[in-house]
C-alpha cells in the first residue's frame, strides 16, 4: 500500500518518447506526465509496438526523450553521472545479456558494481545485500549454479536478484514474465509486489498479462496506439471501458462482467443459458468457442440450456435432452445440424 503524502521516486513531465535519426523523427507518445511513488507496484500495459519498451528505456535513461524532463529522487536525471544513476534506478530488460561462464552468485554480484567499481572487491555490506537479493526472489539454492544452465524462470529470478542487489529506489522491468509458465508468472508478480511494498521500491513492470496486472498492480499505466497513457487503479480502468478501447480488435471483445477478453467470431446463431456458477461459466465459454452468441431472450435463441445442479437440460424446438457432463453437451451441439 502506498501513501500519497510521500515524494515521488520518479517523475516525468511533458515527456515525448520515440526515435530520431537526422531529420527522421518518430514520436510514439507525447506530453506524458507520470510519477512513481515509493512502495508502489505499477504495471504498464499496451498492445504490441505502442512503445512500452521505449518508455521503460527512456525512464531508465538508456535513451533520450524527444522532449521533456525526468526527475529521480528530485534530481534531473540527465544531469546525474552514470554511476550515481545506477544507484538510483535498476533495469531488467527482455533481451538476454551475454553471460558466458558465470555462476549465479557472480551475476548477482554485478549489481554491486555501482558501489564497488568493476574491479572493486565486495565488502560485508555488499555480500549481505547479495544474499538478501537471492533470498528475496527465493533463489538461494541457485547461487552456485552456472547461469547458462538455468531454466528461463530461474535465470529471470537471478536477473531480478542482480537488479535488487543494486539497491536502488526505482526498478524498471520490461516484460520479466514473458517466458514463464503461469505458476511462475504468478510467483514472480507476487514477489515483486511484496518487494515494492516491503522495501518501498517504486517498481514499474511492463507486461502483456492483463489478468495478472489487474490482480497484482497497485496502479496501471495503459499505453494506447494513439500515444495516450491512461493511468489509474486497475478496477477503475477495467470499469471505464478503456481496456475495450485500447485492446479491442475485430476478433476480441473486452467483457467487463468477467474482467477478460473474449473472442467473437460474429455469431449468427444464439443460445440462452440459465443457471449459475462454474458449470454455467464454462458452458458459456464452450458455446462461444463453438461460434454461438449468448442471448437473454429464448425467442432469439436457436436452443436453450438450463443448468440445474449437475444436469444440463437442453431444449431445441420440441426436442429435449438431459446430460450429466459438459462433454455430452458439447458433443450434442457438434452433432446437431445448424443452418
Ligand atoms: N531503435 C529503434 N529505432 C527506431 N524504431 C524503433 C527502435 N526500437 C523500437 N522501435 C519502434 O518503436 C515502436 C515501439 O517499440 P517498443 O519496443 O517500444 O514497443 P512495445 O510496446 O514494447 O512492443 P511489444 O509489446 O511488441 O514489446 C515500434 O514500432 C518499434 O518498431
TrEMBL record:
<dbReference type="Pfam" id="PF00005">
    <property type="entry name" value="ABC_tran"/>
</dbReference>
<dbReference type="InterPro" id="IPR027417">
    <property type="entry name" value="P-loop_NTPase"/>
</dbReference>
<keyword id="KW-0067">ATP-binding</keyword>
<dbReference type="GO" id="GO:0005524">
    <property type="term" value="F:ATP binding"/>
</dbReference>
<dbReference type="GO" id="GO:0016887">
    <property type="term" value="F:ATP hydrolysis activity"/>
</dbReference>
<protein>
    <submittedName>
        <fullName>ABC transporter ATP-binding protein</fullName>
    </submittedName>
</protein>
<dbReference type="InterPro" id="IPR003593">
    <property type="entry name" value="AAA+_ATPase"/>
</dbReference>
<feature type="domain" description="ABC transporter">
    <location>
        <begin position="12"/>
        <end position="250"/>
    </location>
</feature>
<dbReference type="InterPro" id="IPR003439">
    <property type="entry name" value="ABC_transporter-like_ATP-bd"/>
</dbReference>
<keyword id="KW-0547">Nucleotide-binding</keyword>
